[in-house]
Write a structure and sequence with these properties.
Layout: E1 2-5, E2 10-14, E3 19-26, E4 30-36, E5 41-47, H1 56-61, H2 67-80, E6 89-94, H3 107-121, E7 126-131, E8 137-142, E9 148-152, E10 155-160
Parallel strand pairs: 1-3, 6-7
Antiparallel strand pairs: 2-5, 3-8, 4-5, 4-6, 8-9, 9-10
Helix pairs in contact: 2-3
Length: about 180
């Protein structure tokens, strides 16, 4: 399988079943994954900050840096490839207190609250999440299955199991 790295302030959407989208070192940032099993479309966004109004020029330069500009772009790209809001499965990881143990800036919580508000306005709910704490996280989204893997504190586990297609037929996996 081909691994596509989604960097900080980056987003990827694909329908290639042989690809895995991965993002690393989620601290106060959030990795937001979306998946539509019937369309075989998945996307992953790694955003850093909740609100682009703190620096509108940077928001225009790179909308994936902020929740309020990146999440709508992620959804637009997924819908543009054929994903359906009614079938979309959404999961998130991150929002930890890594560099701010005293919660002076509280970026992780602010990112989480902004994300929840934007998803709610879009008519979407989180199916799974690994939020808060003080550990870095890595997530990997398998496009062939919709399985979302989470790695934190040296342990790897499924955050989301494989997502069945309509009629229960699994997507073919690459050998």
């Amino acid at each position: 399988m081909e691994q596509i790295v989604v960097g900080m302030s980056d987003c990827r959407v694909t329908d290639a079943p042989d690809q895995v989208l991965a993002t690393y070192a989620l601290g106060s940032c959030i990795g937001l994954a979306v998946y539509d099993a019937d369309a075989g479309i998945g996307g992953l966004l790694h955003f850093m900050l909740p609100d682009s109004s703190i620096d509108p020029a940077r928001g225009r330069e790179n909308p994936y840096r902020f929740a309020d500009t990146g999440i709508p772009r992620l959804l637009e790209e997924a819908y543009g490839r054929g994903a359906s809001r009614q079938r979309l499965v959404v999961a998130a990881a991150g929002a930890a207190r890594i560099m701010d143990p005293e919660n002076v800036f509280d970026i992780g919580r602010r990112n989480y609250m902004a994300m929840r508000r934007i998803l709610w306005k879009a008519g979407l709910l989180l199916r799974a999440e690994a939020i808060g704490g003080a550990a870095f996280r890595t997530v990997r989204l398998e496009i062939a299955t919709g399985r979302l893997w989470l790695q934190e504190s040296g342990e790897r586990r499924e955050l989301l199991p494989a997502q069945p297609r309509k009629g229960g037929k699994p997507w073919p996996t690459a050998s």
